[in-house]
Amino acid sequence: MHCARVLALIVLLVGLVHSFSWDIIVGGHKQLQFYQNGTLTHTELIPSAHFIASVTYDAVHYRLLFADYNSPTISISSFDPSTRKIQLLVTRTSNGYYPRVVYDPVTQALYWKDGYSIYSSSLNPASSNKVDRNLLAKLDHYPRDVAVDSCGGYIYWVADEEIGRARLDGSEREVLITSTVYYRLSLTIDQQTEAMYWIEKTHSNDDHWSIESTNFNGKKRKTFYILRNARYAFSLAVSKDFIYWQNYEEEGIWQLPKNGTAIATKLHSMSSSDCTDCQRIAANFKIEEQIQGIKSCNALQGLFPNDSKSESTVSICQNYCFQGECSVSAEGRPTCSCKAGFSGERCDLVNACHDYCLHGGVCSLNEENKRVCQCTAGYDGERCDVFICNEYCLQGNCSVGADGIPKCSCTTGYSGVRCEENACHKYCLNDGVCSLNEEDEPACQCTAGYDGGRCEISSDQDNSCDAGNSGQGTISACHQFCLNNGVCSLNEASEPVCQCTADYEGERCDVPAFVVKWFLYAYRNVPPVALSEAVKSTRASTVV
Ligand SMILES: *[C@@H]1O[C@H](CO)[C@@H](O)[C@H](O)[C@H]1NC(C)=O
Ligand SMILES: *[C@@H]1O[C@H](CO)[C@@H](O)[C@H](O)[C@H]1NC(C)=O
Ligand SMILES: *[C@@H]1O[C@H](CO)[C@@H](O)[C@H](O)[C@H]1NC(C)=O
Ligand SMILES: *[C@@H]1O[C@H](CO)[C@@H](O)[C@H](O)[C@H]1NC(C)=O
């Protein structure tokens, strides 16, 4: 044997040791009980369940499927014995009857009866028919149970009045057995013996209950076993070697060798069940065992690769993951690695965060399960959908600095953090006329009587100042008033007014421009005029 394969086998065996072993599972109201050789090996409480009416085993994916009835709702869930995970598959309003669910690994679909109707729901990720409740057939008589023949591709039902079958799409419906009996319950299909079995009570006035069987065409009928002291035997299930059922009167699980060589033995005592239309036993009948020695069952054989060396892992993985890659875990179980945007055990859950935050933003769910984005530098908004440069620079080009703050490169003649200021705007004082020089800097042409780079000097005042006689007030008011190279002048009320350099702002040019820039950034959607007012008032209250 190949080394890797030996290793895989060892890993597989080690993995199996950790999970509890079982040959039948018995469903109860709110629990699943696992038995091996008549010994309870595990009880799984299902807190969400109300009344588990039906259990069945998916021998391809090693999971139990069970139908819970909580009037008026039917829900079908899967239970994985190795991970003990429960997954809700179907929830529907019922017709008011106990549901019965079966699974077909070939079509990968659930089939269930509810009242007089049989429905199907595909669990195949590749199936185009994802309808939750696909009506397959509405029957004339109340079916007490349904079963699937995966090899032949039929669904069968038993009613007191008939046994019938149809293709798994509901077509080719036919009645195979027409006799009406007092009770006809609990149908099970055995591929290995190519027979179906059911429980029958022919007349009302005796206690004659029996397990009946025919082949899949309703032929070769025989009474397989006469149930003595039986009353309401139900939940027929079949495994490689045994047939199991539940007996209301004798309160227990019974077991009979399938080869009919012995009498039935009581495997386990349990309190009586209140639901004879229920099917609460699932047997661990492996697919390999089901098709062992069968000449033609391409459907089930097709689940396994012809290359027996690769074991059954291919079939385990086949169509298991909805949106992802399947691999087999150390425990021999299918495991999905989901595509971006999907999560869940079978990658069937859409990831709420997928593609939510734009431009590289990181998405997470907050305590209220709402999506929240952490944006990369340069982006903002609920989904990082707003580029911070958008409409930021009023007259110029915008770029995002390393600090994540937008920076403007203003077009000629404009200045200010958002290029909101015309360089000439209020540049020349005393009615001086402003224009841009060759270096694109504002230059003033002063009116008569004024001088200075910004026409801030009155020729008269200038002289007076030099003389030091008159204009004393002007000098003292302006003296060291404007900081950081701001130019001082007096307004009409003889108060000092500063014209600051580009790096400073404020009444006395005392506020570095970058502080204002931060402010502008925070209020970047505020129009420039309102903004400068806001800056002034904020500055007055915060920066002194
Ligand atoms: C179950 O019982 C059979 C027959 O008595 C025995 O051979 C087998 O080892 C038992 N299995 C377990 C897991 O106890
Ligand atoms: C019938 O089945 C039982 C249980 O598997 C087995 O012990 C017995 O040997 C079988 N008998 C025959 C005749 O095959
Ligand atoms: C396996 O073999 C059967 C018959 O030998 C063939 O019909 C089938 O297509 C094969 N399956 C695969 C997966 O190769
Ligand atoms: C703005 O960008 C355009 C296109 O790249 C360029 O032609 C123009 O000179 C830029 N203007 C400034 C002020 O940087």
UniProtKB/TrEMBL annotation:
<dbReference type="InterPro" id="IPR000033">
    <property type="entry name" value="LDLR_classB_rpt"/>
</dbReference>
<dbReference type="GO" id="GO:0005886">
    <property type="term" value="C:plasma membrane"/>
</dbReference>
<dbReference type="InterPro" id="IPR000742">
    <property type="entry name" value="EGF"/>
</dbReference>
<dbReference type="InterPro" id="IPR013032">
    <property type="entry name" value="EGF-like_CS"/>
</dbReference>
<dbReference type="GO" id="GO:0048477">
    <property type="term" value="P:oogenesis"/>
</dbReference>
<feature type="disulfide bond">
    <location>
        <begin position="353"/>
        <end position="363"/>
    </location>
</feature>
<comment type="similarity">
    <text>Belongs to the cueball family.</text>
</comment>
<feature type="signal peptide">
    <location>
        <begin position="1"/>
        <end position="19"/>
    </location>
</feature>
<dbReference type="GO" id="GO:0042813">
    <property type="term" value="F:Wnt receptor activity"/>
</dbReference>
<keyword id="KW-0677">Repeat</keyword>
<feature type="disulfide bond">
    <location>
        <begin position="338"/>
        <end position="347"/>
    </location>
</feature>
<dbReference type="GO" id="GO:0060070">
    <property type="term" value="P:canonical Wnt signaling pathway"/>
</dbReference>
<dbReference type="GO" id="GO:0017147">
    <property type="term" value="F:Wnt-protein binding"/>
</dbReference>
<feature type="disulfide bond">
    <location>
        <begin position="424"/>
        <end position="434"/>
    </location>
</feature>
<feature type="domain" description="EGF-like">
    <location>
        <begin position="349"/>
        <end position="385"/>
    </location>
</feature>
<feature type="domain" description="EGF-like">
    <location>
        <begin position="420"/>
        <end position="456"/>
    </location>
</feature>
<feature type="domain" description="EGF-like">
    <location>
        <begin position="474"/>
        <end position="510"/>
    </location>
</feature>
<keyword id="KW-0896">Oogenesis</keyword>
<keyword id="KW-0744">Spermatogenesis</keyword>
<keyword id="KW-0325">Glycoprotein</keyword>
<feature type="disulfide bond">
    <location>
        <begin position="478"/>
        <end position="488"/>
    </location>
</feature>
<keyword id="KW-0732">Signal</keyword>
<dbReference type="InterPro" id="IPR050778">
    <property type="entry name" value="Cueball_EGF_LRP_Nidogen"/>
</dbReference>
<feature type="repeat" description="LDL-receptor class B">
    <location>
        <begin position="153"/>
        <end position="193"/>
    </location>
</feature>
<dbReference type="InterPro" id="IPR011042">
    <property type="entry name" value="6-blade_b-propeller_TolB-like"/>
</dbReference>
<keyword id="KW-1015">Disulfide bond</keyword>
<feature type="disulfide bond">
    <location>
        <begin position="500"/>
        <end position="509"/>
    </location>
</feature>
<protein>
    <recommendedName>
        <fullName>Protein cueball</fullName>
    </recommendedName>
</protein>
<keyword id="KW-0245">EGF-like domain</keyword>
<keyword id="KW-0221">Differentiation</keyword>
<feature type="domain" description="EGF-like">
    <location>
        <begin position="313"/>
        <end position="348"/>
    </location>
</feature>
<feature type="disulfide bond">
    <location>
        <begin position="446"/>
        <end position="455"/>
    </location>
</feature>
<feature type="disulfide bond">
    <location>
        <begin position="375"/>
        <end position="384"/>
    </location>
</feature>
<keyword id="KW-1003">Cell membrane</keyword>
<keyword id="KW-0472">Membrane</keyword>
<dbReference type="Pfam" id="PF12661">
    <property type="entry name" value="hEGF"/>
</dbReference>
<dbReference type="GO" id="GO:0007283">
    <property type="term" value="P:spermatogenesis"/>
</dbReference>
